[in-house]
Write a structure and sequence with these properties.
This protein is mostly helical. The protein has one domain (about 15-150). The protein is about 75% helix and about 0% strand. It contains four helices and no strands. It has helices at about 15-35, 45-75, 80-115, 120-150. The relative contact order is 0.21. It comes from Hibiscus syriacus (Rose of Sharon). It is found in: Cell membrane. One of its GO terms (cellular component) is plasma membrane.
């Protein structure tokens, strides 16, 4: 039987806290580079990325607080229903963020090949960096989902 302390990225562990902090950093960076001084709302995929990253950041922040509480108080959450809610939320947000990152990267690539009249090089590089940060956020979110899913049958 797998014990919660043996699963490195499961809810309530220090590895999960590190994953959540990474999600917060990357989703916030994606939002920052998309929104600062840029009219992102002219393309639907950019608006979608901003919406999804705007959901990922508070979700990850709230679960980071749960992880921090669990790490410092040494009280691991072992309720299967709570873990199932976390898994479903992580799963949904990870696929939404993957879709947003892919659509943003593809539209940015299309705009970059269309020429500088559609996307100046400085603007396109900011869009590309925002998409890259969204991909990194997705990777960490999906890793959290897999670690928690691995733990669920043992509860």
């Amino acid at each position: 039987m797998i014990v919660m302390e043996q699963v490195p990225g499961a809810l309530g562990t220090s590895a999960s806290l590190a994953l959540r902090l990474g999600q917060i950093v990357f989703s916030s960076a994606s939002l920052l580079f998309m929104c600062l001084g840029v009219e992102f709302f002219s393309y639907t995929s950019f608006s979608y990325l901003v919406t999804v990253m705007g959901l990922v950041a508070p979700w990850s922040l709230s679960l980071a607080l749960v992880d921090a509480y669990s790490v410092f108080i040494k009280c691991l959450p072992r309720q299967p229903r709570v873990l199932l809610i976390v898994i479903v939320g992580d799963w949904a947000l990870s696929f939404l963020s993957l879709a947003a990152a892919c659509s943003t990267a593809s539209v940015t690539s299309l705009l970059a090949t269309a020429g500088t009249s559609y996307c100046p090089s400085k603007l396109c590089s900011r869009f590309q960096f925002s998409a890259a940060m969204a991909f990194l956020s997705w990777f960490l979110s999906f890793a959290s989902t897999l670690f928690n899913l691995w733990l669920l049958p043992s509860l």
